[in-house]
Amino acid sequence: MGSKQTVFTHEQLEAYQDCTFFTRKEIMRLFHRYQDLAPQLVPLDYTTCPDVKVPYELIGSMPELKDNPFRQRITQVFSDDGDGHMTLDNFLDMFSVMSEMAPRDLKAYYAFKIYDFNNDDYICAWDLEQTVTKLTRGELSAEEVSLVCEKVLDEADGDHDGRLSLEDFQNMILRAPDFLSTFHIRI
Amino acid sequence: MKSSKASQRYRGIRRNASHCYLYQDSLLLSNLDDSFSADETGDSNDPEQIFQNIQFQKDLMANIRCRPWTMGQKLRALRRAKEIVLKFEGRLTRTRGYQAAGAEVKNTHVSTATPSRCLQNQEVVSAIAPVVIYRLQAPVNNTAVDQDNRLWRKFARLACNFVVTFIPWEMRIKKIESHFGSGVASYFIFLRWLFGINIVLTIMTGAFIVIPELIAGQPFGSTARKTIPKEQVSSAQDLDTIWSLGGYLQYSVLFYGYYGRERKIGRAGYRLPLAYFLVGMAVFAYSFIILLKKMAKNSRTSLASASNENYTFCWRVFCAWDYLIGNPEAAESKTAAIVNSIRAQDSSRDLESYGGEGNEEFEGVGGVGWKSTDASGQRILLAVDVLQSPGSVACITVLAVTICLRIIANILVLLSLAGSIYLIYFVVDRSQKLEQSNKELTLWEKNEVSVVVSLVTMIAPSAFDLIAALEMYHPRTTLRFQLARVLVLYLGNLYSLIIALLDKVNSMSIEEMAIENDTSQWIDSTTFFATRTAPEEEKWSTPQPGMGLRRNSTWAVEETSISAYTTPLVKANRTTLYTQNPQDQCWETYVGQEMLKLSIIDMLFTVASILLIDFFRGLFVRYLSDCWCWDLESKFPEYGEFKIAENVLHLVYNQGMIWMGAFFSPCLPAFNVLKLIGLMYLRSWAVLTCNVPHQQVFRASRSNNFYLAMLLFMLFLCMLPTIFAIVRYKPSLNCGPFSGQEKIYDIVSETIEKDFPAWFGSVMGHVSSPVVILPAPDDQTETLSHTPESREALCHGDTATGAQRGVGREQSIVIEHAHLLSPEHRTFSKAQQPPAQNADPKRKYSTTFAIMNVCQPHD
After folding, report:
1. What angle do CA B571, B577, B581 make, to 5 degrees?
2. pLDDT on residue B777
3. What is chain B's percent helix, strand, coil content, to nearest 5?
4. What is the C-alpha to C-alpha distance for residues B813 and B803, in angstroms, rounded to an integer?
5. Is the sign of the CA dihedral B406, B407, B409, B410 positive or negative?
6. Half-sphere exposure of residue B659: CA atoms within 13 angstroms, side-chain side
7. Given B71, B79, B318, which is nearest A115 (Cβ)?
8. Kindly report the CA angle at B211 between B208 and B213, in degrees rounded to 5?
9. Is B577:B653 a contact under the CB 8 Å cutoff?
10. I need a labelling partner for B406 at 20 to 30 A (CA). Which of A117, B290, B650, B719 fits?
């Protein structure tokens, strides 16, 4: 108990619990995970809100992320400057969204951002290509990839502008039977 | 007053909703700060606005975690919201603050008025003031409620923080998830959930039956029914007696027969028989409720599924990756599977042989959106691929061969099903004959029933697997068939076992009748003992309904008669019939023993199969592959794969066994808790050490209801025999809490007659008349389908998934139960349906999304 109190103030913990889907214990666990990534960088006292960022290389090497083809995108989406370097707040945010408790629409919103590689608020053909290539580790030929992209746009593009808007994406993803259970990282 | 308050609140909510829409827009631009307009942050003085603002900020605070903002924004917004609420609530709460607020409002009204109308304004203010104050009352009341709410929320959070620490095996499951993806983990989550249910069942039976009996019931050895008969004492501690649950175990709280029949026990007068009956029913009721609740909740989370919308490629791309995977091997096989699935989809699209359905997402438990696929069409396609000969003659030959093979396979399956059922029936029959032959039984003979049942349940699925290879179906279809067959097998096993057992019970009760006659004749003929042993004998063999009362008075006499006449009695027993001992005639104990034995042996076989099929095979493959003539790892034995569907079915079967036996052996749930703990550890260890990730994509299945639907089905079918036994059979005369009654359920009417005031009895008499009973199930279904969960599930009507199926099934169950076909029922269930089908899905979804963002629960 005592050690917990020194990392965060009581108010901080309450605020974090309000802002994430975690319990106090999980927040502490996440903090320790975060701290373990860069023990010399991250202080053990967060009561003064130090401005610390853990570089992407370390975040991406977490066992939860290291085999994920989209790890770079995930960290970029959740980091402040889009460079993948994360503060503790970003870190908590990320795992909160990926937690089991997060609602479907929140997950869908962030999934859209993750698959939107060029951050233009639309998933265009290029984004799709990136997604497919990462997903299959480049094992599909270029024609196959473009065919798949074409089909995807065919299926989900409601307004036929050649790219998926957030609304198109939500329409599609909210109906996927296993989106909730797969878009989930347990910590 | 009320209406005005309501309308005010309504307006507030409306406004909040519109604010939230604003937020929805603003969050997309991720420009939070602009959306705080002046009147939200600031010092608006209109009390209604203040109130709305507070409400809005509170909503924001409650749901801030669901906003897609960065943590910094969230924290800032939270802090601001808290400040605003504090500030304004301070103004509005408490009498002082509220007066101050009223005064302030007055002042502002005055000051806004033009000086020229000052005189009139005096009146205006006096007219306005009560209105204002009255308006303020709503917030005041509300803030009090809100404080309660806040306290409550704080408490809930504390409780939640506390409870989370007790969720077992979190890390273990996580590890499995990262190795095998969400599919395999869903088995373990299901196992954990079952474990929870069994703990509750254990607490129920333990607290209300077992512990009272232990504390207040007559101690072991005090009465004939709680004493091991003399001729068995010598062997009561033998290992094989214990093993077959005889001896001391038979005469213990483990089984029905041990429980006393006194209507009240202990000083407090605990009504054990009544409790026994009610808990027995409560076990089923609780299981039903918890299952349906879970199903409703699940279907709420899995909004989508069965839509006809064709998003195959999108899902294949955007939902393909299982974010839980955290192991390079698993990641690799997942990638390979995704590539396969995309390719297969491509080619199948190109050939247009079958559209829409995936090639690889065949995991049985996933199957919400299964359509019947054109199997023979696939078959031809595959045959063409295999033979590389597009000629139509070859095609037809191949087709003919496959059809023949399939017919053969189905015949084989049917034969093995029939064989297994016959085998079980035969074994039970044989055990009965062996027991009647009255000779010393060997260990095998005592256990053969449960061993055979376990063997069948273990071997037959593998046999089906082999047979399925003959059929050459598409893997998805194969799995479906396999599941259906295994389910039928398990059900057939349990049912043939229970039917055979009940058959035996039948013959037992006939025997009992015979003994009864026998004994009375014997008592008549032997005049020497007649005077003294008559009460004793009577108690043992021919108790009458009023016996319970009489017994207490004759207790002392009986005690002495036992001590004085034990020897002659035992002798007498021997001379009459071997089966005279009180519990030998106890069919309830016998059924309980068989179920517990089955459960134990099933456990042993599970352990053995895990060791043999997974562990030793793994060892063999791992260490002998270097010096073997073919590649063990990739060809024949390989490493085992974790068969989710079959393992889940096994869990369902196991739980069914517990439900079936729980009434006759109150400790069965407790045993099952231990069994599940053991299984959890053993399985997770075996999975991590010996199994390899699946070659195919397994669709995650936590969020859908297939497992639960099977479990519900099992529960219903396992409840039937118990109910049947309760309704149909006369409880044993010499043992158990219901001995001497005509039917087990008579305990309820007896209690109503004797322990409730007379008026209650007459009321019950009216209430239980058909006029009232018949419509009752209707209400029941209505309540069931109107629990918050189900209602919410029903709200998301277009999904038309499990909850409705679950609720629908419950309805059908109730219908079956009550044997009634009231027209109301139909209209009711129909009334539930329409929202499910109409409503334009697309529009609904976009609005659903917006609404979900906007209206999170308001309190």
Report:
1. 75
2. 52
3. 75, 0, 25
4. 15
5. positive
6. 30
7. B318
8. 90
9. no
10. B650
What beta strand segments (E) does B148-285 contain? none
Q: Does A8 touch chain B (CB under 8 A)?
A: no
pLDDT band for position B194 (cuts 50, 70, 90): very high
Please list, in sequence order, all residues whose beta carbon lies within 8 angstroms of the beta carbon of residue B833, skipping any fewer than 6 positions away: B804
Angle at B364 between CA B358 and CA B369, to 5 degrees: 50
Neighbours of B724 (CB within 10 A): 13
- Residues B803-822 have a mean pLDDT of 39
What are the residues whose beta carbons fall under 8 Å from the beta carbon of B597, sequence distance 6 or more?
Answer: B244, B245, B447, B449, B450
ipTM entry: 0.84
Q: How far apart are CA B146 and CA B140, in angstroms?
A: 10
Q: Do B324 and A20 touch (CB under 8 A)?
A: no
Task: Please provide residue A17's backbone torsions phi and psi, each rounded to the nearest 5 degrees.
Answer: -70, -30
- Nearest by CB to residue B78, choosing from A15, A139, A182, is A15
Q: Looking only at Cα atoms, what is the longest distance across chain A? A: 60
Report the alpha-carbon distance of residue B51 to residue B12 in Å, rounded: 8
Tokens 């995936």: give the residue. B358
Q: Using CA atoms, how far apart are residues B184 and B702, in angstroms rounded to an integer? A: 10
**pLDDT band, very low/low/confident/very high, at B783 (cuts 50, 70, 90):** low
Specify the residue for token string 């799995």: B479
The answer to whether residue B412 neighbours chain A at the CB level (below 8 Å) is: no
C-alpha span between B401 and B413 (Å, rounded): 18
Residues with Cβ within 8 Å of B616's Cβ and at least 6 positions away in sequence, in order, are none
Q: Would you place residue B679 in the very low, low, confident or very high pLDDT band (cuts 50, 70, 90)?
A: very high
Could you tell me the two tokens for B839?
């409503």
Residue type, A179: F
Residue B697 amino acid letter:
V
Both structure tokens of B840: 């334009």
N-to-C CA span, chain B = 22
For residue A15, the tally of other CB atoms under 10 A from its CB is 19
For residue B502, what are its two tokens? 């009940």
3-state per-residue secondary structure call for B738-775 = CCCCCCCCHHHHHHHHHHCCHHHHHHHHHHCCHHHHCC
Kindly report, residue by residue over B569-589, the tens digit of the pLDDT.
Answer: 444 444 334 444 555 568 888
pLDDT single digits (tens) B681-711: 999 999 888 887 665 544 434 446 777 888 8
Between CA B354 and CA B359, with CA B355 as vertex, the angle to 5 degrees is 80
pLDDT(B778) > 50: yes
A residues 35-74 closer than 8 Å to B (CB): 63-70
pTM: 0.67
Name the residue type at position B524. D
pLDDT digit string, tens, across residues B155-181: 888 888 788 777 888 888 888 887 887
Secondary structure (3-state) at B42: coil
Q: Is the distance from CB of B106 to CB of B47 less than 8 angstroms?
A: no
Tokens 């005077």 belong to B531
Most B CBs within 10 Å, among A74, A175, A179, A180, to test the B interface: A175
The whole-chain average pLDDT of chain B stands at 68
Where do we find the tokens 């483990």?
B254
What are the angstrom distances between the C-alpha of B319 and each of A112, A141, B74, B366?
12, 21, 28, 14
Q: Which residues of B60-79 are buried (b: 16+ CB within 10 A; e: fewer)?
A: bbbbbbbbbbbbbbbbebbe
Which residues of chain B neighbour A177 with C-beta distances below 8 Å? 302, 304-305, 315, 366, 368-369, 699, 703-704
Instruction: Please give the Cα distance from B498 to B425 (Å, whole number).
Output: 9
Note the residue count of chain A.
Answer: 187
Q: Do B321 and A121 touch (CB under 8 A)?
A: no
* pLDDT band, very low/low/confident/very high, at B380 (cuts 50, 70, 90): very low
Does any CB of chain B come closer than 8 Å to the CB of residue A30? no
